[in-house]
Amino acid sequence: MQSTSLPNQATTWAALSTVVEEFSDWQQRSERKFADENTEYLAYLMDQLGAESKPLIGNPLNHPVLGLLSHMSSKNNRMRELLFAYLAIVLSQDSEPARRLIAGQRLQADLHPEYVAATRCYANTSNA
Fold first, then answer.
1. Residue 90: helix, strand or coil by DSSP?
2. Is 66 exposed, middle or buried (0-12, 13-18, 19+ CB in 10 A)?
3. Which of these, 8, 52, 65, 103, could form a disulfide with 3 (CB 3.0-4.6 Å)?
4. Per the domain annotation, does 1 fall within a domain?
5. Does the pLDDT of residue 115 top 80, yes or no?
6. Coil, strand or helix: which one is 121?
7. DSSP track, 2-69
């Protein structure tokens, strides 16, 4: 049930991530009921973080958390943005980053103009 209008996660992350599941597809697959929207967002973000981290399992990292953070900062922008959206809900009950990420918008500013034009990853705003 992937969205065909831009932005959407598949278009935004196509060249940057091999594991992208649209929120609506995840909702159908999970078939779970949640107490509120934030809880549902947290479950989705955790599922996507797990999917993004699967390739790291078994890699010889010097420390599980430090290795993960290093990987996120250097090689996996989607994982970093998923974690940011997750922490925004957990730490400050702010679900706006999750909503934007689910809508296919990037949370990082100052991306390459051609990428932004092709994916419309900042939606109709001038910059995330």
1. helix
2. exposed
3. 8
4. no
5. yes
6. coil
7. ---SSS-HHHHHTTT-S----HHHHHHHH----SSHHHHHHHHHHHHHHHHHGGGTT---SSHHHHHH
Give pLDDT tens digits for 53-100.
Answer: 776 666 655 555 556 666 666 667 888 889 889 999 999 999 999 999
Nearest CA among 53, 10, 2, 5 for reference residue 29? 2
**How many structural domains compose the chain?**
1
Q: Structural domain of residue 69, as residue ranges?
A: 9-119
Q: How many residues comprise the chain?
A: 128
Q: Tell me if 128 is assigned to some domain.
A: no
Q: Is 93 left (phi over 0), alpha (psi -120 to 50) or beta?
A: left
Q: How far does Cα 33 stand from its chain's mean position?
A: 21
Residue 92, pLDDT score = 95
Contact of 128 with 108, CB cutoff 8 Å: yes
- Measured CA to CA, the distance from residue 49 to residue 101 in angstroms comes to 13
